[in-house]
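Researcher: I'm preparing a figure for a lab meeting and need a structural model of a single chain. I don't have an experimental structure, so a prediction will have to do for now. The sequence is pasted below. Please return the structure as tokens so I can convert it later.
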Amino acid sequence: MRNYTANSPTRLLSPWALLLIVVLLGALLVLTYTGEDALMPGEEQPDAVSISYAELLLQAHPDNTSLRLKLIKQLIELGDLRRARSHVYQLPESEAHRVRFLLSELAVLEAQADPQSLTLQARAALQDQMRAVDRNSISTDELIRYARYALSLTDPGLAAPAYRDLTARDGERRDYWLNEAAQAHLGAGEVLAAAGLFNELLSNAETTADQRRYLQQAFSALLSGDRSEQAAELVHRHLSLMNAGDGALMGAAVQAGIGSHRYDLATDLMTSWRKLQPDDLAALKAEFGLHLAAGELEQAWDVGQRLATAESSDTGLLKQLAQLGEWTGHTVAALNFWLRLIQLEDNPSIREHAWRLAAQLFDFDNTIALLAGTGAGRQLTDVELDTLVYSHSERGTPEQAEQWLRNYLRLQPGHQLAWMRLRQILEQTQQLAAESVIWAAIEHRFGLTIDQRVDWAEVEWQLFNPQSAWQVLNSIETDSVADEAYWRLRGELAWELERDADALESYLRLGVLSVTPDSTTEERLITLYERSSPERALDVMIASWKRRPTPAILSRALQMAMQLGDMTRLDVLIREGRMLPSSDSISALWSARALQASEAGDSKEAERLYLEALARFPETGEFRPQLLWHYIDQGQQAPLVPLLRQWEGLAIKRSALWLPFANANLLLNRSNQALRWFYLYLRLNPDDSLVQAAYADALESAGYSDRALRLRRHVLRNLEMPTHGADPAQYQIYLRLMSARGAGLAANALALRWRDGSRSMLQLWFDQFSEQLDTLNQSSLKGQWLAWARRNELKISRYAELQEALQVNNRLVLERLLADEGLDPAQRVEALQRLGSNGQAMAESLAALSPKPPVIVRQQLLRQALALQELNPQGIQVGMRRQDFGSVKLQGPTALVARQLDNDWHASLSLSRLDYSGSGLLNAQPGVEQAAELDLTRTLDKGSLTIALDTSDHDEGDRFGFGISRRLQLTSKDALEFHADWQRQAEESGLLRALGQRDGFGVSGAHVISARDQFSWSLAHQRYSLLDGKAVGSGQQANFELSHAVFFEGPAWTLRSGLSYSKYQLKNDQLPDDTDSATDESLLTPAALLQERFGQLYVGSTWRRGFPGALNRGTAQFSWLLDVQAGWQWTEQQTNYAITTGVGMEVLGDDELAFTFGYQSAPRNGDGEPGGALGVTYSARFGR
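Model: Understood. Here is the structure written out token by token.
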């Protein structure tokens, strides 16, 4: 500066020096400049500086693909995967295949850097990404990395193809890559592919060691691929490579040949192995296995012997050899092997197999030793124990067996079979006392079965202790025992000990078990049954007869069947007995045949048989009493007179004829002679209560009623109640005596208690019960009991059969009973009446009315005749009648004539001449009505048919009517009647009776509920009109009534209650009056003639003696009637009552003069006025 005062600076360098420096530097730069190649990435380990230089170069040359690829590689090696990915994305499209590989490589490296992110899904995605890489488009180095990455992803299947590609690219290292590929195939489970590669390596190998190594690997791969046969063939082809150290491979090849059933290959391999190693124990075992597999058991057995010598402590080998010995038939040697095995390894299953084999070989010593050793440690099974005992038995050492069992039971007292086998040994050695002790111990510990108890009882009986044997059998409940041996032994013991009830029970149980009895059992059963149940004794006899058809057995069975009255089995015995060649010489068969005919109702045939038998066996005393009893039972008096006279001298000597003679004289009304024969018998048999009872009946019949009563009391007081098994007649007499004293219910209860299942006692109870039903008048129940009796094949009396037939209206039975002529006159009349033959019934009842029949029969005939006359009266009646309907009245004479035309037809004609009067007639003037009605009734099989004709005529018009009705007797208690009418007289009101008529039809019924109660009803449809046909109305009627008879006679009293209801539809039009004085105000209306609706509930009572005013008088001297009724008419809301009374008197013999009177407070359509009736009649009957 100009004004600067400091000194000027001194220059360090001159300008020329500076220029020289610049020139030198420039020259240095020129000499040292090398270009851009100095910045290019090298092959050395990359670092950050080299990476930066490479990136600077790429900025100068962005299209340099080679430079970018090197940079990506260095970044990957450096681990900067993010920057490497960014450069990969900058590669051109021409490098797309390389981009795909690099991206997959980066993805794998990123996953390896973060193992937590490598899930199964991520791993699968990476594997898919790598499969998308085209291996042919990447370099060898990249292909190597590709295979390594595939293995890192555990995908050897992806690496194997890469290694196989490398074998083609890298020829120098081909064997290495082949080995890697094979290992990869193995890792991927592609063992066959690996085996092929190992086989290729084996072919290319130059050294023996490599060949043996590749052979081992190829063999292992084939085995892994289940190619045993190919593996064995592979080793077989390369046997030349084998040496003594390849025993394991040879063994494996042999097993492969065996497994593929290539026993030829296995044999060759085995031969080569034995040559290489003749003393190798493994080879010997392999040969043993080869022979077993090939089915060469004998060769295997030979090899096994050498093995057993070499390895005597090998338990598996010993077991195998023992089994092989059994297969090849060397069972003794096999047993030795089992025994050696037990010494080394005492297994329960092995020991069991050994003793079973020893038992099969009958090697009882080893069997006993083995089982005894087992028994020392535990309780034997039943099979083991039986085998041990059997072995002792077969060896002949029962004493040792007994001792062993006793020692064993000290250790195992709960083994029941051991006790039983010890007992069995004692039984075989006849140590009965010791056996009994063992039985007691068994019962104490375990209880006994039925068979065991029977065996024990037999032991006691063999020891002569029947009482102990009995206690053994009866110490249990016997209800459920079903063993034949038990009951047979029990029966024999009971018989031995005289225990009859127990013996019978035992033999009965044998029968239940369907055991066929032998002759001894049969005799015992018959003996026992004869004391308690004769019907069962007959069963045994019949069974014995079927097994042994002899005359003696037949006679015994026939006599028992006749005694019991068992006709069913008697018929069978007769039919079978007559097949015997000697049947005519069997007297019992003749008696049975005669009884059979008598029971069948053929008395003539029975008589013939008795007479023929008496001629064949004159010295036999059995047929004379039988013939007499036959005549007595049939009531045949005529044949008895000569026989009594003929045999009287013989009868005095033979007591068997005394009772028949007594009853025969009683039948002939020779009471004194009958008493003499009874006295003769009772003097010899004073304690026979049955005959004493019959003697009392004879005394009563002879007129000594007081003596009869005293005798019956004496017999009943001294007669012991029959015990079980007594004669049925004793039961019957006892019950008769009780009933005679008025103890009928007690007798019935006693009969019920006596029922023991036998037919005779069942019959006795049924007879007593039937008698009691009759006494209590319970006939409704009796029909059911009779049906039950028929099902049980019991006898039914003729009287009971008739009662049932009448009750159910069984025409076939009634006709049969009439044809049999076994009915008394009263019973015949009742049967004829029920069959519809009223005329014949009337004739027979009148004919039988005489002093000859008994009083009770004569009284019944009289009642029947009166009832028939009331049903079909015959006679003539005249009288005067006055009837008041309230506002309409009529009166005049009446006449009635009735007659039985023949057995079936009955006619009745009614005539009247009545004069109408009263305010209720309005303007009508009927005047005098003349009426007639004819009824014709025909009796049919089940009811009757009635035809009615009636007519009436008066000043207001005339009428002709017709009616028909059919009565059906459904049962003895139920009846129905159907009727139809046309233009019949109407009784609904007085005016309607005078001016109208009715048409209609209906049905009615009567049902007997009990002996005293009856229910009746009627339903009808009616149509009403005037006499000129003008309609009045129509409707329905219903009536129901229940009656109860308090007394049937002396006098009869009946109570009743009922309901009456009717409803009509009346015409709306007025009915013109045809009289001359008719006016508009006097026109008739339907309501004046007929009440539209009527309903009434009522109760009533009737007392009567006969029927006053009836056509035929049914009572002597006089009859009377008093009937009262009260009701509520709900349609009129009023009460009403009615009284009817009458009296009839006997005049001029059988004629009757009767007066009747009736009053009703409110009759229907009576205009509120009371009504009633008054009548006087005179009746005379036709005939008796």
